[in-house]
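Protocol step 4 of 5: obtain the predicted structure for the target chain.
Materials: sequence only (see below). No template structures provided, no constraints applied. The aim of this step is simply to have a reference model before the mutagenesis design in step 5. Sequence pasted as it appears in the construct record:
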Amino acid sequence: MTDHPTLDKIQAEQWSGRLAGVLAETGKVIVGQRGMMEGLLLGLMTGGHILLEGVPGLAKTLAVSTLARTVDARFRRIQFTPDLLPADITGTTIYNRETGAFTVKQGPVFSNIVLADEINRAPAKVQSALLEAMQERQVTIGGETFAMADPFLVLATQNPIEQEGTYPLPEAQVDRFLMKLRVGYPGRDEERLILERMAGRELPEVDKVLDPEVLRGIRDAVGRVFVDDKIKTYILDIVFASRDPEAAGLDLAPLIAWGASPRATLALTQLARARALLRGRAFVVPEDVKAVGHDALRHRILVTYEAEAENLTSDDIVSVLLDNVEVP
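Step 4 output (structure tokens):
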């Protein structure tokens, strides 16, 4: 994707209208959680994989499955468990006694939208099988290589509070997720609405408003959202400040073990473009970068033991970066 030809205002508003229809449909089922739903939609718009983290009962799985229902595409849900095998994800070869030949049976990963539920409950070998498909966009089964579907999007959930019987994702693999969304509790009024809408009732029907062809058009449109050189410099300033805070005039060096990777620069740019399009603009403004900063960076900045001793998280570090790096 390139910066040219750029979108015009009318095209941006047209795409924004289509995307607003997705949020309207998911809003029939999901009460509140606007940040999570917009984050999931940004992933859909960019083709980037998303990791959702939150305690049980916050509708993470329901949100993903509801979003998938608005897209006329193949959707599979995989419940990760400790006894899962890589072949359960990618597929395997089966011997046919009648023909004396092996045939390939593709696994659930061969879908457009894959929900990896509680991804940290499966061993590292299974996680790696999925993450390889995410990164390489292909899977090899029995010596034969198969390309993933287009679009191909993995939405993974994990529970941060229960560590017994789990296998935390290595940082290098977490970095492959475009975003890490933190899902919090709904407000009191929202929970009252959940109670009145959902208690003892079937979930409302959701209409399909997108299809794979439209998704490809949206991804192309995102790539044509204009990013000014000053915005690009701003993004680089944020990322490099996480690696060398002293050079940026920030007293964060004792708190950061590792700064953001080059994937962070690409993620901030992609997500800022997608947010601008979602807002009906054909150009990125600094507010777009700030709005997606936490979701793009929280899993790419590792804090030191000193930061943990002071109860500081990567989100706190990102807040300092966004508050102090000069805005163009």
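Step 4 remarks: The chain has a mean pLDDT of 86. The radius of gyration is 21 Å.
Proceed to step 5.
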